[in-house]
Amino acid sequence: MKPFNQHSELQFDGRALINGQRRSAVSGATFDCISPVDGRVLTQVARCGQADIDDAVAAGRAAFEDRRWRGLAPAQRKRIMIRFADELLKHADELALTETLDMGKPVKYARAVDVNSAANCLRWYGEAVDKIYDEIAPTASTALALIQREPVGVVGVIVPWNYPMIMAAWKIAPALAAGNSVVLKPSEKSPLTALRLAELALEAGIPAGVFNVVPGFGPEAGSPLALHMDVDCIAFTGSTPVGKQIHVMAGQSNLKRAWTELGGKSPNIVFADCPNLDRAVEAAIGSIFFNQGESCNAPSRLFVQDSIKDAFLEKALALVPGYAPGNPLDPATVMGAIVDQTQLNNVLRYIEAGKAEGAKLLAGGEQALLHSGGCYVHPTIFDGVKNDMKIAREEIFGPVLSVLSFTDAADAVRQANASVYGLQAAVWTRDINLAHGVARALRVGTVHVNQYDEDDITVPFGGYKQSGVGRDKSLHAFDKYTETKTTWIRIDSPV
Asked: Which residue of the set 99, 261, 294, 395 is catalytic?
């Protein structure tokens, strides 16, 4: 692979955006934004810290208190949110290319999936906000009890690097639509599209100070945001260990609301009576290798009933060559680069752990495109995995599939639930009773039946156990960014 140069005219601005203005970190510090495509430095990004977080929160608080955004009628906010979505689509090619260069995903998916999904999310919450009614409680005739939603205030948002635009949109869209101010801290591994989104928000008409983006590292910018005494709510997507720290920081500071969408080790359960084995194989392989396996809901534990396991694996291995990593800028590429060298090394360590614990390596297991300057790994499949192995217990966040077997439904459910995570799962069977029974027994937030990862913005996303607290997407997301206020009015009726 040759280093890219055909897009050298694309200029990136790595400065923070606070109170409607681009600015450097107060300290003047920066860090290199390195493309995993070929190791090229894209730009220098502001390495923000406590002072910058303080300024961003102050801007958000001022905007909230003077009601420049929350004071607008819901229908007015709706129109601006829809314009915000339109701005994303107007700049779709630029945003997709930026996302690819910044975090390594194939450009065709960045354009077709990430940009479109983020724009749809902004539009959907904009459309929804003027259709949500408050309530009147069924009290006695001597009282009128009003139950109203109000924006919570200043919302801190910390998002990961795997779907930078989508993860940001899932949080900022309902938060902004509800009338809050937002301070977004993107991952230091993929900060560029978040910074561009803030510019597009201003162009769409969201007032200065309402949406601020402060790049930087977790300990230097993320922690001050989570600990800030004037942040009313913190919304985080990322690893479970960091999510636990977020909850501790929320308690240590002002007891701010903390919503965390965390890790997963999702089980994909294929019964012998699977109605379409080819489709099950395609879903299993396509879903684990999509986005280079860098998805919290990736079905990384594949449970196949004993009697069909050999046939399933034969079909699965035949598909693996089609997922060979390639240049993410090539529209034909379906698997791109791991986000950075640190994460690549982490994936390779897990592969070595799988070998050491006795799992059978069926495909991949090695770094790819070694002379590209980028971060690539071959799609990897392990068979003979036991549920107590490291590769079956821990989230790898890479294109590594662990294949396990089971005897019957009880065995499948027992193994599937034997995890600290509970994000998603899938069940493949033609028996509707079996499908419902297993779905009810699985301790996860979403169960897919005879498909994997088909959903849309109308359904909630989140998990049980250590996969987090709260739900993104759907109308349920408004619950995270609003307070419920009761106003009780006594009525002394003369009638």
From this structure: 261
DSSP β-bridge partners for residue 143: 490
* Segment 251-266, tens digit of pLDDT: 999 999 999 999 999 9
pLDDT value at position 2? 42
**Exposed, middle or buried, 140 (CB in 10 Å: 0-12/13-18/19+)?**
exposed
Identify whether 274 is a catalytic site residue: no
The reported pTM is 0.96
Catalytic residue among 48, 121, 233, 296: 296
SS3 (DSSP) at 145: strand
Class of residue 417 by CB neighbours under 10 A (exposed 0-12, middle 13-18, buried 19+): middle
| CB neighbourhood size of 136 (10 A) | 10
Tokens of 396: 């790898």
DSSP states of 18-69 as a string? ETTEEE--TT--EEEEE-TTT--EEEEEE---HHHHHHHHHHHHHHHHTTTT
Q: Catalytic: 48?
A: no
Tokens of 105: 């995903």
Distance from C-alpha of 106 to C-alpha of 67, rounded to nearest angstrom: 41
For residue 238, CA distances in Å to 144, 243, 353 come to 43, 7, 23
Mean pLDDT over 463-468 rounds to 98
How many CB atoms sit inside 10 A of residue 255's CB?
8
Distance CA 272, CA 432 (A): 14
Structure confidence at residue 387 as a pLDDT band (50, 70, 90): very high
Q: How far is CA 216 from the centre of its chain?
A: 18
Measured between alpha carbons, how far is 332 from 337 in angstroms, rounded to an integer?
A: 14
Pairing type for strands 468-469 and 41-46 reads unpaired
Of 225, 235, 231, nearest to 256 by C-alpha is: 231
> Cβ contacts of residue 255 below 8 Å, gap of 6+?
none
- Mean pLDDT for 104-119 is 98
| 285, 452 contact by CB (below 8 A) | no
Nearest residue to 447 (alpha-carbon basis) of 297, 305, 241, 248: 297
